[in-house]
Amino acid sequence: MAMEDGETMLVGMGLRVSVSPVQTTFYLFLVILGILGNSTVVGVIGKSVITDHGGGRNSDIIIINMALSNLLVSVMRNVPLVISDIGLELYSSKEWCQILMGVWVWLRSVNVWSTLFLSAFHLQTLRRVTPTMVTRNGPRGFPKTLLLSLALIWLLNFVYSIPAHIFSTNGDENTTETLMLVSSTTRPLLGCVWNFPSIYSGLAYATTSMVIHETIPIILMAFTNLGSLYTLYTHSRVRSSAEDAPVIKRVPAERRAAKVILTLIMLFIASWGTSIISVNYFNYNRGSSAEFLLVIARFANIIFIAMSPAVLAVGHRRLRSFVKSTLSY
After folding, report:
1. Which of 171, 189, 200, 262 could form a disulfide with 193 if both were Cys (CB 3.0 to 4.6 A apart)?
2. Contact (Cβ atoms closer than 8 angstroms) between residue 325 and residue 303
3. CA-to-CA distance for 204 and 212, rounded, in angstroms?
4. Mean pLDDT throughout 55-79?
5. What's the pLDDT tens digit per position in 122-132?
6. Is residue 13 within 8 Å of 193, Cβ to Cβ?
7. Which residues of 176-205 are buried (b: 16+ CB within 10 A; e: fewer)?
8. Which pLDDT tens digit goes with each residue over 14-41?
9. How many CB atoms lie within 10 A of CB 172?
10. 251-288 b/e (C-beta count within 10 Å ≥ 16 → b)
11. pTM for this model (two decimals)
């Protein structure tokens, strides 16, 4: 536990770890890559959504939402981490800490559910184009319903982040904590720490966070991707006929999209899974490897944000064209 002024006990999360120049440089590279990559995804696909009202708009909106959450996490959370690692002592007032801690938890939670939404939407798309279920003359989707669903993700996670706003305060440069909240950060940042009324309420919030925003989404992602793979497998075994030919022709494109999304989800599960295992090992064991595990957790949290734009560029036609034209310029 951390003590402030010898009297007030801060029950929170985070641990200061020593960071080598090599680690700082690599982390800075990943942060810049994440900001540039996700900005490109938002800009290029966003422009196509505005100018092109044809097919694929729904999936593009979901991709933009995921990339936007990645971008905001990088700017609001990872950039201050880099600045702190460089050696600048950044500390905030209690009011700023409440705002920042609430925003960090909000954005990280939105990031998880936005990624799951992409996987679930693609499974629903695959089942819609399956010959036994398709309605070729029916509506292709209702953007307002999609936008409402995405708005609900942001709203519900905002409500969830309110306790993170309320029970935050500013510590001091010597503050270290024992309780780790996976959805936010792995150490006091900008001097901000958790100050729950008791260690039990703090642990309850952290446990709820891990179950709702870590375990459940990852399990659902695994099931939706298995469902997508099974749908594609069974669909590929169906022999084309005159009636089903227009639908069958869409399968190769859906299979390519499935591979891209599967790669994204596997990257996400590996990234977050590594972070969860590392942080929880630190919580319950605290061996000599604890500091090393926290470094691993920190890098695992940024890998998905940094690499997902590259994965999308491989499978998205407009992004791929933009990258090729930029590199050949």
Report:
1. 171
2. no
3. 12
4. 86
5. 888 777 655 44
6. yes
7. bbbbbbbbbbbbbbbbbbbbbeeeeebbeb
8. 445 566 788 888 889 999 999 999 999 9
9. 14
10. beebbebbbbbbbbbebbbebbebbbebbbbbbeeeee
11. 0.81
